[in-house]
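Fig. S4 source data, part A: sequence.
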Amino acid sequence: MPNEIYPPSAEFAARAHIGSMDQYRSLYQRSLNQPAEFWGEMAERELAWFEKWTTVFDWQPPQVRWFMGGKLNASYNCIDRHLETWRRNKVALIWEGEPGDSRMISYQELHRLVCRFANVLKSRGLKAGDRAIIYMPMVPELPVALLACARLGIIHSVVFGGFSAEALKTRIQDLEAQVVITADGGYRRGREIKLKPAVDEALTECESVQNVIVLKRTGSETSMREGRDHWWDHLGREEGEVCPAEPMDSEAPLFVLYTSGTTGKPKGIVHSTGGYLLETTLTMKWVFDLRDEDIYWCTADVGWVTGHSYLVYGPLSAGATCLMYEGAPDFPQPDRFWRLIDKYRVNIFYTSPTAIRSFLKQGDQWPAGHDLSSLRLLGSVGEPINPAAWDWYYRVIGGERCPIVDTWWQTETGAIMIAPMPGATSLKPGSGTLPLPGVEADLVDLQGKPLGANQEGYLVLRHPWPSMFRTLWNDPQRYEDNYFKKVPGAYMTGDAARRDEDGYYWILGRVDDVMNVSGHRLSTMEVESALVRHPAVAEAAVVGKPHEITGQSVACFVTLKKGDYDEQQLGGELKQWVAKEIGAFARPEQIRFTEALPKTRSGKIMRRLLREIVTSNSVSGDVTTLEDLSVLARLSSHQDED
C-alpha cells in the first residue's frame, strides 16, 4: 500500500473544477509565468469589489501588497452578494450542539444576524481599526461575531475556548482589544465548559477592554459587572437589521491569530482582507471541488486558522452549506461524527490525522453502523497523515471511492499551499502531492542551496501569494528575522520535507522547537515558561514525544528548587498547573525530574538529545558540545513520572 498510486476516477474527473493534469499544469505554469495577469483575473472572477485595484501586487521582500487601491468587504463577500442570487434561501450553516439541539440558518437569516450584531458593536462605539477578542464555544454566534467585525472593519482575534485565563490575558494585552465577545460557557463531553469566569480573571490586568458581550449558551449562573458586561440578546433586541458593509482597503487587516513560536510569547499573525479572501475562496474549488449542492464539514474549531479559512471565510465566500458541531467527536459514543455525516448527508469531510488515528483505534464497528455513502471527498489537515491512517480513512470511511486531499499549509500562509486537485492529481498515501497554482515551493539545505529529488531539506516558498500573512502584530522585526532572513527573498516555513522523483512533497514535520499536539501548534518555550512559574520548579525543558493518537505529546524534564518533595504527587500537580496556565490540550503526558539538564558549554539546553531520550531512551546523536556527559546517562536510565 505505501507505494501504491491512486489516480482520480474518470467519473470524479469528469465533473471536477480541474479535471486533468494538463489543466493543472497549464494553470500552474501561467500562475508562475504571469502572476499579475493570473491573480488579477482570479480576483475579478471570484470576489465582489466596491472599487477595483490599480496594481495586482508589489513585492519588496519581505513586504508584499496585493490588489493595491482595491476596496471590498469580507462580510459582504460571504453573505450579501449571495442575496442577489438563488442562494439567499440556501442553508449557509447547519449547526448541532453537543446536547443534540440544532439550527439551520439560511444566507438571508445569517445576513440579518450579522447586521444586527454589527449594529450592537456600533452602539458600543466600536469602529474600523478597533480590536475585538472572541472567546466562544462552537455555536453559530461565533461566525456571526467574526462576520460582524469584518463588516465594520474591526480587527478580530479568536482565542480557542480551551485556552486558560492566563493565555487569554496575554492575547488581550498584546492586541490592546477594546471588546471581548464571549459566552457563559459551552458543552464538551457532557460537561459545561465555563468561559466567562476565565474572561473575568483575565480582565483583572487588561485596562484596554471597555465592553464584554456575553452570549447565553448554557444558562448557568454568570457574574456580570455593571457598565462593562452586557448580555448579547439584550443588546440585540434594540438594534435594527440593516447595516451596510464598510468598504475596506484590500490590505486592511482582517484578523490577528496568535500561534506558538519558539519563544514564550505567542506570535500575532496578521492577515489582510483581499488576498486572504481570494485564496481561501479559490482553494474551496481547487482542493475540495466544491459544488453548490454539497454539504461540507470542516471539523476544526474556529479558534484555529483552519476554522477561519475553511469553516467561515472560504466556504461562505464560495456559497457553501457548512456543517458546524459544538462538541467532542466521541460523545456520547465514539460514532458521533459518523452519526452526523449520516444524518446530514455530508459530502465533503475535512478533519485531522489525530482524529483519524483515534477513530481507527476505536474500531470499524462505529463507522460501519452508519450510512456514509453520501461522502464523495475526504480531507486531512494539521500534520502529515501516516500511510496506515490514510489507508483506513480511504477504505473504511470513503469506501474506496473518495479521493483524500492531504493538505499542507500554515497559520502564516492563510490558505492551502500543497494539496491534490482531486480531479487531476494521482494520490500517494502520506504525500501532500503538488503545490497549488501560484505556490513556488522548493527544498534547500542549511545554506539555502536547492536540493534534488529524494533529499531531505527545509521547505521554502519562493514567490509571494495573496493569502500570505503581512506581518506579526507589533513585531515587524521578528516577522523579517523569523521568516525571510534565512533564505533571502524566500519564505522559510519551518518545516522539513522531501520531494520525490515525481515532484511530490512529503512533509516531515517541524524543524524548530514547536510541537504539534492534536494538530495544534504549541511552543516548547510556552510550556517551559508555565512550568518555571510554579514555586517548586527551578528549570524546565520540554520536547514533543511521538504519540500514536495525537501525533506528539508533551514531555517535560524538570529540575526542582531545594526542598523535600513527593515527586509522584508533584508530577500530577505540575500537569494540572500547565493545563491551567495554557489549556487542557497542553497538559504534559509525562514529567521527568532530574538534578540537571543536558547543556552545551554556553548554557543552551540540548533539546535534540532530550527528544532522542523520550523517543528511544537512548542517545545516538553528536554529544561533543555537551558540558556534562553524566547527565545523559542519568536521564536515559530515569523512569517516567506519569
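Fig. S4 source data, part B ends here. The domain at 440-511 is CATH 2.30.38.10 (Luciferase; domain 3).
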